[in-house]
Amino acid sequence: MVRNSELPEIGQSSKLLAMRVRSLIEEKDLSQTEIGAIIGRAQSYASLRIKGLKSWTIEELDQLAPILGYRDAFALIAACRPESDSPAPLPDADDGVDLDEVAAVEQAKVDAVLAKLRRDDTLLAAKHDPHKHDPDID
């Protein structure tokens, strides 16, 4: 048997998850024995995960999530994500992005491609396929 102090350390994400799960378990006033029963394991197995000494599996989190107030394991994991790691919101018109300027740049790209096609700078299979050739383009 391995002593808790001899267990390999788990990663930072697993630690954050374990802390959040532990907090939720305490809020619900659930015991380690009850958690073990929910996930189909012994109290000692649950204890190692609640204390953050071993990582939870997705399956275990799926079993716990509804009891802890979450839809599934992924919702529970997402709730553990630190605010500073949240993805930046996409810019909208009020964030100083000039949508007309973006549209003008994109239109310039389209115009450049069309100009090359008109000059015949690009080889396109469709231009050389008699079944796809449009005589109105010439």
Describe it for me?
With 138 residues, the protein is mainly α. It has seven helices and no strands. It has helices at 12-27, 32-39, 43-50, 58-68, 73-79, 99-119, 125-128. Helix 2 crosses helix 3 (43-50) and helix 4 packs across helix 5. The chain starts with 11 loop residues before the first helix and ends in a 10-residue tail after the last helix.
Chart the SSEs and their pairings.
Elements lengths: L11 H16 L4 H8 L3 H8 L7 H11 L4 H7 L19 H21 L5 H4 L10
Q: List segments where confidence is low: pLDDT < 50 over at least 5 consecutive residues.
A: none
Distance between the termini: 82 Å
Helical residues, percent: 40-55%
Helix tally?
7
Calculate Rg over CA atoms: 29 Å
Helix and strand pattern: HHHHHHH
Largest sheet: none
Counting DSSP E segments of at least 2 residues, the number of strands comes to: 0
Task: Indicate the proportion of strand residues.
Answer: under 5%
Task: Give the tags.
138 residues; mainly alpha; 7 helices
Task: Please give a quick description of this structure.
The chain is an all-alpha fold and 138 residues long.
